[in-house]
Amino acid sequence: MTWTHKHLLGLEGLSRDELTFLLDTAERFHEVLDRPIPFVPALRGKTILNMFYEPSTRTSMSFAMAGKRLSADMVGFSKLTSAVQKGENLLDTVRTIESMRVDGVVIRHSCPGSAKFIADRIDAFVVNAGDGAHEHPTQGLLDLFAARKRVGSFEGKRLVIVGDITHGRVARSAIIGFAAMGAKVTICGPPTLIPRDLGKAFPYIEIDHDFDRASKDADMVMMLRIQLERQHTGLFPSIREYRRLYCLTAQRLKKLKPDVVVMHPGPMNRGVEIEPAVADGANSVILAQVRAGVAVRMAILYILAGGELER
Fold it and tell me: Of 34, 46, 102, 297, which has the fewest Cβ atoms less than 10 A away?
């Protein structure tokens, strides 16, 4: 197929064929990373701006590494040392940088819709690296990539996403991506951490507040951390209570399918939503998710900056 989108702003609206195309392209770059010299000259001469208005380790580093592996010039942006500190707005900042002939912009911002706002106003391609509690499309893709390595086809498989859904952009991209690929998705967590209208927004999902019941026949379990930095009031009695009800412990893992795939987008709060023994155990693909992030982001940058790819 031929890729027709200029930007990657979310997984919503992408077809199964398009998602498969992205994953298959990432598979090629995953092989590149195994070479003694893991570089290709695919984007030599291209300049890509990494704009992170929120803290990030995995995403910002993997985008930077992906660009360098493709031989692109990656330009980092620090909010703390930019004119933002003097009151410059987001659009003026991006336009200023684009005037220096940037080919692409990778942006993370606290405001939902910020990536689309920029994409509608500049000529460079835009990749959404997380916009508030809206979407995190490349995380959704790398989750799909890592899980596909273990389960193969997603058709008829069950994914349970557990934790802070209200404040988590990861959950929304996972819901959209896994469902589009044929998986059945169940959302689980305290009622205070699941939006009331989630079932209306995604009528094809199931919602269950009992972790043990929801995960009984799951093929994949994705644990999410509690995003305390986005919460303004206490939404559950205590960490101890949350752990008792929603932590994936070694004891709980024994009750699940022997080959269940354990996922976590990171960063982890070990001992809160997942026990260290589970995070580091045989069922876990957490490190595989991190590694997949570079390959997936190489694929995205290559497709958007390198033009059409024929399959």
Answer: 34
**CA atoms in the 13 A half-sphere facing the CB of 248:** 35
By C-alpha distance, which of 7, 279, 292 is closest to 141? 292
Judgement on whether residues 203 and 149 belong to the same structural domain of the protein: yes
Query: Is residue 157 a contact partner of residue 151, using CB atoms and an 8 Å limit?
Result: yes
pLDDT at position 273 is 96
Closest alpha carbon to 26 in 311, 299, 302: 299
- Tell me the residue ranges of DSSP E strands in 134-260: 158-162, 184-188, 206-208, 220-223
Contact criterion met (CB below 8 Å) for 209 and 188: yes
SS (H, E, C) 54-90: CCCCHHHHHHHHHHHHCCCEEEEEEHHHCHHHHCCCH
Residue-wise burial string across 217-254, b where 16 or more C-beta atoms lie within 10 A, e elsewhere = ebbbbbbbbbbeeeeeeebbeeeeebbeebbbeeebbe
Domain-located, residue 224: yes
- For residue range 88-102, what is the model confidence (pLDDT) as tens digits? 788 888 788 778 889
Find the CATH number of the domain harbouring 207: 3.40.50.1370
Query: Nearest to residue 252, comparing CAs of 226, 228, 281, 285?
Result: 281
Question: Is-contact 108 139, C-beta < 8 A?
Answer: no
Please indicate, yes or no, if residue 283 is contained in any of the structural domains: yes
Predicted structure pTM score: 0.92
Q: Is the same domain home to 70 and 212?
A: no
CA distances, 191 to each of 55, 127, 188, 218 (Å): 28, 32, 9, 21
